[in-house]
Amino acid sequence: MNVLKLLTLGIFLIGAAAPLTTHAQEFQRDIETLEKARVISVIDRGEHQIPGTEVTSESQFLSAEILTGAQKGEVVSFTNDFVQLQEGDQFYLRHLVSPTDGTEFYSVADPYRLHVLIILTLVFVGLVFLFGGIQGIRGLLSLVGSLLLIFYVLLPGISSGLSPVFVAIGVASLIIIVGSYITHGFTRTTTAAVLGMIGTVVVTGLAAWFVVDVASLTGYGSDESVYLRFQSDGTIDLIGVLLGGILIGLLGVLYDSAIGQAVAVEELLRIGGNVSKREVYMRALRIGREHIGALVNTLAIAYVGASLPLFLLLQYSSASAGYIINGEVFATEIVRILIGSIGLVLAVPVTTLIAVYLIRPTENPRDTMQAHSHK
User: Fold this and answer.
1) Which of 150, 184, 335, 338 is an S-S bond match for 190, by CB 3.0 to 4.6 Å?
2) Of 249, 230, 208, 217, which Cα lies nearest the Cα of 329?
3) 250, HSE (Cβ side, Cα atoms, 13 Å)
4) What local confidence, expressed as pLDDT, does residue 4 receive?
5) Is 233 exposed, middle or buried (0-12, 13-18, 19+ CB in 10 A)?
6) Beta carbons of 37 and 83 less than 8 angstroms apart
7) Does residue 226 carry a pLDDT above 70?
8) Residue 24's pLDDT is what?
9) Residues 263 and 339 in one domain
């Protein structure tokens, strides 16, 4: 029984049991707070078997001091059967309070990892500055702009009830425009790549919409989707969210493919002399084919790597391979890989064709979109 069925059954049972107590009583969620805490001491350790399985899990009885929030300075003790902690470790403490009888429950929500993430980010930024130079700085600015568009345009747009498909296409186009011009400058080469990417995103978005509908995918391909459905009271279109995720996930490799093709056309035009546009197109397409082979493999392996635990389940399931692959969880990942690969392949001929007709061979290092006056 999948997660959605379990949650649906639980809600049904709650609804069925409520009339037996009182008609006025309504189901109320526990009041939850998350605060930073520090382990004072590990009082006891042990192991217990997870009910219904042969798997054993470690547990410990902790004493911890709350470091933030209304309970700052208080010391609490509780059993932890999640990530095992040591004395002095910091973590996020989950505090649940029942709205009916005030019963309190403490647990470890997550170890504190922000310091590791901050150090890793600083190392990354430092290496980009050191070896990337001005182009690396532009790339970082492009990344920041893309993240701002995702968090302040895409997510609020979807949450407000707008169509996730059209919001994702719009935001993806804005990310392409902002990121490309910041990183590569206002040139005809960049413009050719931008137009090629936007065209590919639109075509890929429509294709993904069609495939998801024909394949009868519901968007419930992960636990997060189920939780999102209930947290939003069913107002968010999960199918649209799935489509939006496919399009945003495509952008990373799409940049590489489109910019590479536009630059290839630019260089061929510079040394080609009187070579026809058709000849330039065919030669640039030859370069693109090699690029496609590498990037399609990269895209597929990246998706498989991200879903490795899912694929490992094949080793432990008694169901047939056909049944497992047919399931929504696997089918969704396969659709992601194939739609992304289709978009990647289409970007090469589309961008190459646009670049051949847009870029003009000149003696300048880069032919900008601005007019130049020569004396």
Assistant:
1) 184
2) 217
3) 35
4) 41
5) exposed
6) no
7) yes
8) 41
9) yes
Q: Which residue has the higher pLDDT, 142 or 228?
A: 142
Q: Looking at 30-34, 118-122, 133-137, 301-305, which range is the least confident one?
A: 301-305
Question: 139 and 98 share a domain?
Answer: no
Which domain range does residue 81 map to?
30-113
> Where do the DSSP E strands lie in the chain?
31-49, 56-66, 75-80, 90-97, 104-111
Both 94 and 186 in a single domain?
A: no
Beta-bridge partners for 106 = 95
- The helix-helix angle for 328-358 and 188-214 (nearest 10°) equals 150
Cβ neighbours for 170, distance < 8 A, ≥ 6 positions apart: none
Entry field: residues in the chain: 375
The reported pLDDT for the residue numbered 323 is 81
| 12 falls within a domain | no
Distance, in Å, from the CA atom of 303 to the CA atom of 289, rounded to the nearest integer, reads 21
Q: Can you tell me the mean pLDDT for 222-235? A: 76
- Rounded (10°) CA dihedral 28, 33, 39, 43: -10
Q: Are residues 102 and 137 in the same domain?
A: no
